[in-house]
Amino acid sequence: MAGRRNRMALAVALLLAGIGVCAPVAASPPPLDPFWRNATVYFLLTDRFRNGDPGNDHAAGRQRDGDTLRSFEGGDLAGLTRTIESGYFNRLGVDAIWTTPLIENVHGSVIEGQGGKSYGFHGYWPLDWTAVDPSVGTRRDLSRMVAAAHRRGLRVIVDVIANHAGPQTDVDLRWPADWVRPGPPCDYKSYAGTVSCELTFTLQDMRTESTQPVDLPPHLVDKWRREGRLDAERAALDAFFARTGYPRTPRYYLVKWLSDWIREYGIDGFRVDTAKHVDPELWADLRREADLALTDWRARHPDRIKGDKPFYMVGEVFNFGLSDFGNARGSAYDYGDRKVDFHAHGFDALINMGFASQSRQPLPQLYAAMSDQLTAGAFAGYGTLNYIASHDDMGPRDGARTDPLGDAEALLLAPGAAQVYYGDEIGRSLIVPDSRGDATLRSVFDWSVARSAKGRALIDHWGRLGRFRQRHPAIGAGRHSELSRTPFTFARILDEGPVHDRAVVALGLTGASVTIPVGTAFAEGAVLRDAYSGERTTVRKGMAALRRAGRVVLLEAATRVR
Questions:
Q1: Which residue, 34, 307, 456, 463, is the most exposed by fewest CB within 10 angstroms?
Q2: Pair 310, 410 in one domain
Q3: What is the pTM of this model?
Q4: Is 273 a catalytic residue?
Q5: Which residues are 491's β-sheet partners?
Q6: Residue span of the structural domain in which 186 resides
């Protein structure tokens, strides 16, 4: 791993024009492990992915009487475990699975604005941070899922929430006033107008900035007493506060409850929901406890995943990511009256919220600009997570899935880490008739499509790209160098500590017989393999000639193939 380095904030538009603008140079921490900077992360809504246990379909008295796609549909941890054990994610080249929150959510429903009658199927309406939601399974189901993932070499990332509790419903009580604020609604005009406010009237915004100690909420005390674990939960809290010296404020209850998921189950990373709506000091505290918890879990589990990586924390800072062309805002989020660099508060990476729209632009300019920021600009050494679709971005790259093959190439060959949203690989449409709002993004994964001839062909394409990316950390973490515009050909090279990797990619091919440049990536006479077609070739005069190329060329040293 390379040592500490300097980084310089550069405007993307000026970089493209070849003009550098110097900014004050500051020391940065060691760069994030290339594994996480290149990782392919498969993001799924647990309830919408696969039903492995019909016995929990109506847990907690939940009914399928919500608006279109706003009830629980039956997906669960048992179904996810079955898919892991089948090798499905390995065939796609996935490095980590990211699930929506597994925290027990409110049991009832609400009328949610334009969305109609809605349940917390998505997991973002917490009721009890210490319990697995009964609709997705049990504590044992979660342990089995993580163990199955680790046996397959997959990391597990879970979504976590500290900004809010779920809504009050006809069966779920409101949290005490010293835990949640009554308002005002967020206006996004300042730090306070984004953090110390209600994100939406249906949610109960936690007083994470409060310095006043609070007692356990009565509804949790009653719940734990009914479940026979009140004394154990109180004893665990006493031990946590005695060890850390933290005050018993809402913030530190949440830190304790969230880090317990790592200590108990061996979770490898967190995706943090609504990160910009919480005072960033909470995230720094959570990260410290997360690192300790994972160290503790690994010490107790010698059969853990091979090739352990540090704990990974990626944040959702909505409407933020790598800068747009011409918008050199740097790595800090600007609230208007205050800037916060989330990387300085425990985050390894931020989701690149602009990629879905930016990837509709010509890829040569986009990839060059992204590489500049990730290797020499404001985000140097940090991670980013690109996506073409997600559960709450109403502007996906290709909602109707008119070009699922091109979608795969744009995402999986971009600099940075890649977030595959469940169903990307089978062309799951994001336009669902009769659905309202973000429900259209959250349909049930159709396994009959995955088994069809069309689905298998799409999965094969995504898998060839994904496995190539998995073998080559240079794709996401290396420096980008364009070699040709027609066809668009580029090299990615990574030389960082013990990691030395290189690959050449060509896109937009129009025939099976092609000759493409390899630049300095591969030496004269090197034997290469096209990972897409399987054809081998030898570098002659800086060129690689192929006779059986597919729609893309993925060149690697033949000796690197496993």
A1: 307
A2: yes
A3: 0.94
A4: yes
A5: 481, 504
A6: 29-214+249-291+303-477
